[in-house]
Amino acid sequence: MDDRRIGIFSTSPVEVLLAAGLRPVDVNNAFIIAPDRLDLLDQAEAAGLPRTSCAWTRGLYAATLALGLSRILVVTDGDCSANRAMAELLRDQGVEVIEFRYPLADRSDAAVRSAMADLAAHLGTTLDAAEAVRRELAPLRADLERVDRLTWDEGRVSAEENHRWLVQSSDLGGDPVAYHNDLIAFIESASRRDADGEGPRLGLFGVPPALTDLHEAVDAAGARVVFNEVASDFAMIPPADSLGEQYSRYAFPYGIRARLTRALAEAERRGLEGWLIYDQSFCHHNLENPAVDRLLGDLPRLHLEGDTPGLVAERDRIRIEAFVRTLTQPGRSPIRAASSSSMSPALGLDLGSRFAKVAFRDRAGHEEVRIIDSMRFYRTWARRGAAGLVLDLPALLRDELGIRAPAGLLGVATGYGRHLDGLEGCSAVPEVHAHAAGAAAQVGSGEFLLADLGGQDTKGIRVRDGAVVDFVMNDRCAAGSGRYVENMALLLEMDLDEVLRHHADPVILSNVCATFGESEVVGFVVDGVPVERICAGILRSVVMRLLHLLGRMPDVRDLPLYLSGGLAKSPGLVCLLDIAWEGHVAALPRPRLSGALGCLELAALSSTH
Ligand code: SF4
């Protein structure tokens, strides 16, 4: 075993470690590529680390022990707030822990040099020796900058490759010479590639994602990440003239404002068109989100959350696709046709988890609509084809509406899930745009905020000048969705419509977890609380979830708020929301059909372009 190894948990003064003859091992990198990384998380939980600590933290603990590291450098000022506790835990396991503190109160070259000199002395070396290492590494850092430029300026290095090289620079693979040789070979090869510069240019803001294929998912959606915020900060590029300059320029330790200042400058330099903001579950940095949303400028943003290492979930792929769509549509996603006078006949389909909503409009503008149980819809008019779902629209029109499919029929579908991939028989559009288009058509306006309260998810969509400019979606939890209220109605043995009526004097229920919420409801029933108050409490928790979601979008409080989806028909919910929003709140005239009607609008738009 190489006893010169020293584990690190974040970007640390690697030049000092190398000057001391140590071999840095970034435990983050070892954890995320470990084939048994999920087992490592289990081991950490078995050792008593709570499930409510972030997966990176648990992984670092278990990977440190699994790697047999006897020595760790932990940054206790200027990195993860869990690091002090981690230091204690690892000391208890017999690991030698060396602490390093960035001078948070004084970000000057001199203060940084002083902190590094202390570390150097502790490790038996000097700052001069570390400066000599810095000079040796300068060509390597210049090549890291070259990789970054090959991504954002020349389009020859993918976002994932960019992320991998920059993140791995934290420990330089433990062997700077071998790492640099590999880097040079990579650059030579990448420089010969054709430029691949299509799609909106995005920045990825946040800690390194546990979603292992996030960059590929963005590529697949037709966009490109050209700025990996934290990874490029970790890489300390371009080379600096001294260690004091290099480590005082490093923004991550110095808080969210330092990071945002750097990010805004890079957004301008790299011509960003939108932001992906990565939130790691249970990370203290999530508390910074209000500042991030407020200060990150006017560019559209999409928050994504990851927990344990793994692939991007289906719903997040859909969200990424919808987000990219908002950035790529001509004129920023127009959702309203100028005129309906020359429309082709169209069929709009909103394929929801429980119901398929169908809207047909003929050349004269006459409309027919149906809401069909999803199981019956798929059994009767859908089959699996070679490329994806095949819909038999003529049969659907004939069977359900008694209409013979007209010549030139335009079919447009939206819905939840990847079953819209490879769809045959009609074109597919993102849910966000379909719902926004349906709402715009119903209210006759292009300036509003829409809350779509669906069976499994909730969306907030901001429409400005007749285009989608921002949207948010609830994350993986079903609390606050239509299914949550249905489950509560079942629990109370009540008709759903009855539950949806009440708003007066609501009890306070957990608005976080549907399961805990059920336990609370049982408790209120046992205590003899009137069922009307419990129903109002259920709706209040939906409203609180919704307000939290809508609060992620800046500058929306003065907009009229329209509601669509199954829960929009709830008089109790509208009443509670009306009080909380302190502005104009109204359900759309046909809230459940909004997606299907929006598909008709988008069909009309496509027929007039
Ligand atoms: S993601 Fe957040 S909580 Fe987890 S290790 Fe990183 S900084 Fe700490």
List its traits:
Rossmann fold, Nucleotidyltransferase, domain 5, 5-stranded mixed β-sheet, globular, binds iron/sulfur cluster
The ligands bound in this entry are: iron/sulfur cluster
Specify Rg, calculated over alpha carbons: 27 Å
Portion in strands = 15-25%
Which CATH top level class of the largest domain fits? Alpha Beta
Give the proportion of residues in helices: 40-55%
H/I helix tally? 24
**Structural class of the helix and strand makeup?**
alpha/beta
**Total tally of structural domains:** 4
CATH architecture assignment of the largest domain: 3-Layer(aba) Sandwich
CATH topology of the largest domain: Rossmann fold
Strand order of the largest sheet: 11-10-9-14-15
List segments where confidence is low: pLDDT < 50 over at least 5 consecutive residues.
none
Mean pLDDT: 90
The dominant shape is globular
Q: What does it look like?
A:
The structure is a single chain. β7 (274-280), α14 (289-295) and β8 form a beta-alpha-beta unit. With 609 residues, this protein is α/β, with parallel strands linked by helices. The chain is globular. It folds into four domains: 5-128, Rossmann fold (3-Layer(aba) Sandwich); 135-328, Rossmann fold (3-Layer(aba) Sandwich); 346-441, ATPase, nucleotide binding domain (Nucleotidyltransferase, domain 5); 444-595, ATPase, nucleotide binding domain (Nucleotidyltransferase, domain 5, 2-Layer Sandwich). The chain is 44% helix and 17% strand. It contains 24 helices and 20 strands. Bound molecules: iron/sulfur cluster. Iron/sulfur cluster (SF4) binds next to α4.
